[in-house]
Batch of 2 targets.
Target 1
Amino acid sequence: MSILIDKNTRVLTQGITGKTGQFHTHHSAAYANGKRAYVAGVTPGKGGQEFEGIPVFNTVIEARKETGANVSVIYVPPPFAAAAIDEAVNAGIELVICITEGIPVLDMVRTRYKMKNFSTLLIGPNCPGVITPDEIKIGIMPGHIHKKGSIGVVSRSGTLTYEAVDQLTKLGLGQSSCIGIGGDPVNGMKHLDVMKQFNDDPETEAVVMVGEIGGSDEEECAIWVKENMTKPVVGFIAGITAPAGRRMGHAGAIISGGKGTAAEKIRIMEECGITVTKNPAEMGITLKKLLS
Amino acid sequence: MNIHEYQAKALLAEYNIPVPAGSACMSPDDCTAAAKKLGGDLWVVKAQIHAGGRGKAGGVKVASSIEEVSQHAHSIQGMNLISKQTGPQGHIVKRLLVEEAVDIARELYVGMLVDRSRQQIALLASTEGGTEIEEVAAATPEKILTAYAISANSANGFNQNDLTFIAEKLGLSGPTKTQAIELFNTLLQLFIEKDASLVEINPLVITPAGDIIALDAKMNFDDNALYRHPEINDLNDPDEQDPDEIEAAKYDLSYIPLDGNIGCMVNGAGLAMATMDIIKLYGSEPANFLDVGGGATVEKVTNAFQLMLKNPHIKAILVNIFGGIMRCDIIAEGLITAARDIHLSIPLVVRLEGTNAKQGKKLLADSGLSIIAADDMADAAKKAVDAAEGQS
């Protein structure tokens, strides 16, 4: 088991004829069951072409009908990415993973509002994607640092997620699924939504939750964990040294009006029973100690 | 992106939201000429910088004669304005705004922003005008009234009943209430059409005659949407930005200078923050935030090193790269070339992890440069802190 994606997932790449879409589709298809998993690509006006044996369609609905793809990954440039999400949602795709960074916030407000009437789940935007080790990789993360196992990882960051995964793997702790929910202020699944799925997944035994300054997602997740989570959770929050009022790279990583500080998030997470380490080099070992 | 008060007021005026008559000035002479042109017998001279807290810091003054306008303009222009928001180093005032004084019966607060949890646009209003909304939120949250919208059309715009309720709660009635409701709707239209991320009118003044006027205005815009708003992009004032940050942006580096003495160069925003945090954890302070992004080319690394070295307090540099798709051997080559080209003279600690990390480490070791190799993040932080201490 795993969450969100597994070896039976069938993926279509939106923006498959672009440089980024091609690069990452190539690497994702080369990982584990990728050859069988990546069944279609979509680029308007490029229907009928092929990319490394993967057929390209003009529309998502056509691609889904012809290939049975149930998950979409988006590498479309920012001005068109929200519309690409809308198209996937309207076509009945179950899960949309949007890698694109730099989508205007109000585009995402409109897209999220339209999604209310659909059951489609969204991961991202501005995220590394999702991987279920040894089964399927959908996104830009390096596959080889992962190892199959029972630790769930959820994070707002890219390379900091790889750091957490690498520490786990080196300690012999494999992962059930690793979910990068992205660094944008308005996004799809939050820490909380992912945490619920990990709690329900029989294969996941514990969770590493990586957060950062800005917003209140980590706090909302922590409060849920306190009441409902049956598995141990280790946390790390990046940005304890970040100055207030400055955007730290990610559009969503900003302390505004004294809210969203690392100290406050850590305080609430600890109050809710999450084992928080303040040392980013000790995410893995903290979990290992907690499990033994 | 932030803009000045006078620019925000010009935008409000474009949308027929009442603002005081006034004009932006670059010199004291401009100010006296503007006051004469405005007429009347009472004016306000306001420092135009992006940070708030200008009034308390002496950047906003009332004048009852042209001579006084000149005096105030002379004292404000060029002053180093220090407020809570500028930080202790302050900010030099270059631009001024001269306005007619406005009769004030009441001061309200009106703000608009994207509510991250609700994923909607939020209108915030309060009777506590003139006070920072964060203070009101902390002390008397019940005084903040809210309404939500997705777009400016009637189906997904504000619920008009909510707006009537808010206006009445603000103590408004008759034509003033109508004006306020119209303002809320117009502000939403502006917010959406211009891709704003924050609009604040604080205070929104009610005059003794019952008219509403935006006495102050603050606006931020979504950087991700500037590509479709050249007219907003044109309002950018480079004097309000750190010159190093402007230079960093040219090289597609995300850079924020800080107070410490260990420079850090990292790929990825989250890992960059975590690297700053671990430097602090091991007893020192980061000199900057620097995310080199996905492609750490020789050119990018060279520019990043040069930016960090501009900081006179820097004692050591810590490079922390988790090469995923990016190969560590390529990054190592970039680091070696950059360090050689700029004759790097302070200790350089490098931690490379991920694809081809071994080859990368070997290249660094064989380079003949005195690069300190680190095995993991903790080791890197310890070595950087030790190296920086050895320098001081």
Note: The radius of gyration of chain A is 18 Å.
Target 2
Amino acid sequence: MDPSSSGIQEPFDLIRLSLSERVFVKLRGDRELSGILHAYDGHMNLILSDVEETIMIVDEEGQGAVNIAKRKMNMLFVRGDGVILVSPPSRT
Amino acid sequence: MDSLIPFTTSGSLVDCVDRKMLVVLRDGRKLQGVLRSYDQFANLVLEDTVERIYHQDVFAELKRGLFLIRGENVVLLGEIDLDQEDDVPLRQVDWETLEPYHRQDVAAKKHREDIKAQVLFERKGFCKEGGEGDGY
Amino acid sequence: MLIFSVFKTLTDQTVTVELKNDLSITGVLKSVDQFLNIRLDSIKVLDETRHPHMMAVKNCFIRGSVVRYVQLPAEHVDTQLLEDATRREAAAQAKR
């Protein structure tokens, strides 16, 4: 086995370790995702399954309070130019 | 045997030529016209173009003529069903009458989006989606 | 090319494309290109009254750069195959 394929040389290698694991994805705008990572490419395009999306809603009246709405999706392609970060799910 | 669909930009657009199309631009404008030409960047030539604005259940049109649209500004290209077009339950009014309402809608939306982006940036670490001119 | 290949295998399936401006369009995926521009037929727009300009549109071409998500039919996606292909593509990228 090629040893360099299991080492971490660059940021994408970190993402490779998360394949078939649940990841947390923060998107530009107002959304966050939690899903199982099945594919990614150099643009950070992602394919996730069993996804829970959290949408931030800003309440204009109540001093800009932030509420959330959640949605579930089975299989999702996420375009890479909207991705801010990908990480393992936060440990609470 | 299945025919090979060319998986190219041209392949997707070829049967839209000489058809009446809706073009939504990144600045939010909605144009309708006959698609005469396109290229691999989805640059478009649109003839007899009309710009439409909408407000509640009312719309208005303005003749704009011949357009060359740079592909990077296109959100979507929609093929208009000429039969369904007559069934659309919207009333047409004069451009001059509707334009101030439309401008108000656009300004209000931008204001809401700006506040939202500011709050989410400061409190939740989000950054703005899209770049300049993304009013769509 | 990986994602492009995935979309090619999903032609004639029903997908939902969500644009960055929150417009959601469900339709049959007819074509895709290397930029992930999408051609959808027989479209249905979610919350049509908020997008009246879409009322008489039955097919559309969506520029890849304005897409936020595409909801895919899970039963037509082989996740194991995807993961293997991703690892291969990542390895090929690293070698360059």
Note: The interface with chain B takes residues 26-30, 56, 58, 60, 64, 66, 82, 84 of chain A (CB under 8 Å).
